[in-house]
Amino acid sequence: MSGNYSSATEFYLVGFPGSRHLRYSLFATFLFLYSVSLMGNSVIITIVCVDKRLQSPMYFFLSHLSVLEILITSVIVPVMLWGLLLPGMLRISLRVCVVQLFLNLSLGTSEFSLLGAMAVDRYVAVCNPLKYNIIMNSQTCNWVVIVSWVFGLLSQIWPIYATFQFTYCKSNVVNNFFCDRGQLLKLSCDNTQFTEFVLFLMAIVIIAGSLIPTVVSYTYIISTILKIPSASGRRKAFSTCASHFTFVVIGYGSCFFLYVKPKQTQASDYNRAVSLLVTVVTPFLNPFIFTLRNDKVIEALRDGVKRCCHLIHKKPFPRAVL
Predict the structure, then answer these.
(1) Is residue 196 part of a domain?
(2) What is the DSSP annotation of 33-61?
(3) Which of 143, 163, 271, 251 is nearest to 206 (CA)?
(4) Is 70 exceeded by the pLDDT of residue 4?
(5) What is the spatial distance between Cα 89 and Cα 11, in angstroms, rounded to a whole number?
(6) What gap in Å lies between CA 214 and CA 180, rounded to an integer?
(7) In the predicted model, is pLDDT for residue 322 greater than 60?
(8) Which range marks the domain in which residue 191 is found?
(9) What is the pTM of this model?
């Protein structure tokens, strides 16, 4: 590291520059998306836990995916919303910046691992249905989830250490709405090229490590579905994979453009736009993707609403005490 330089102990997040009216409009929009995301993913977790029709590996993984979506968006969005309410830039300490970046990257890595596991689960369900209950038993599912969470946490320890070992003396103003690693590296007085290259290779390994089994699984799935003679059979088989496949396309596409690039110090406007897609839009779409295209989830939701309405109408009103 460069000598005789004092590194920044706090940073200022630029967020979304513009007029106060624009910032308040963005605050209302992002608060709405965040609220819907929290409620939608919470509903998915709840119905998977209470409805016996959803007690299968597919929905078990889906509930953990919803937990990850809630945590990922909650690490970023509340800080972003608070910054939009302030008249100037949001000040954030170095320690909070480290924690935010670590949680964001580790939870995202766990999500990639889980998406790969969900693809393999769909492969077994479509291509080997007779062995599905034997292969995807409860013990296997529990270990898959545990490994996904642990791998995500452990795999980001060195990248976070490597990011914050530099001296940040050029400035302490981060041109984004969260502690973005690319924008942080721009502020370093040291040579970050080697570290950026290693981080680029790690991003390729992590994303490709879950993308390859996903692509292979869906290649076999599509091949198997096309061999089904009846149109209704093909439609039913494809409906079990459509939601996961849609989410995979959105999730991998956005994260590929955000993290898999040799030069981490990408243009700030580019990073801000893609980061919004990853942290706000995708978690918002997740509940709709996995409910509107899934008949079992829709039935469970409909029955849950009926039960709630029945309990509300059945509950007697308290009598007034004279």
Answers:
(1) yes
(2) HHHHHHHHHHHHHHHHHH-GGG-SHHHHH
(3) 251
(4) no
(5) 10
(6) 28
(7) no
(8) 10-314
(9) 0.84
| 150 pLDDT more than 80 | yes
* Strand pairing class (90-93; 173-174): unpaired
The pLDDT value recorded for residue 6 is 56
195 and 158 in contact (C-beta within 8 Å)?
no
What is the amino acid identity at position 197?
F
Q: Tell me the average pLDDT across 251-270.
A: 59
CATH number at 213 reads 1.20.1070.10
Does residue 4 fall inside a structural domain?
no
Please say whether the beta carbons of 295 and 240 come within 8 A.
no
Give residue for tokens 């009598």: 319
Q: Is residue 98 predicted with pLDDT exceeding 70?
A: yes
The β-bridge relationship of strands 10-13 and 173-174 is parallel
Q: Which two tokens stand for residue 270?
A: 């580019």
Instruction: Answer whether residue 262 shows pLDDT above 60.
Output: no
Q: What pLDDT, on a 0 to 100 scale, did the predictor assign at position 33?
A: 93
Q: Give the separation between CA 26 and CA 84, rounded to whole angstroms.
A: 8
Number of domains in the chain: 1
Structure tokens at 70: 């809630």
Among candidate residues 108, 102, 115, the one with its CA nearest the CA of residue 144: 115
Position 109 in a domain:
yes
Q: What are phi and psi of 21, to 5 degrees?
A: -65, -45
d(CA 119, CA 247): 11
Please tell me the distance from the alpha carbon of residue 234 to that of residue 229, in angstroms, as a whole number: 8
Can you list the alpha helix ranges (DSSP code H) found in 129-192? 132-135, 138-155, 157-164, 181-186
- For the stretch 176-191, pLDDT in tens is 889 888 888 888 888 8
- Decide if 2 is inside a domain: no
Q: CA angle 201-203-204, nearest 5°?
A: 65
Alpha-carbon dihedral 149, 203, 207, 105, rounded to 10 degrees: 40
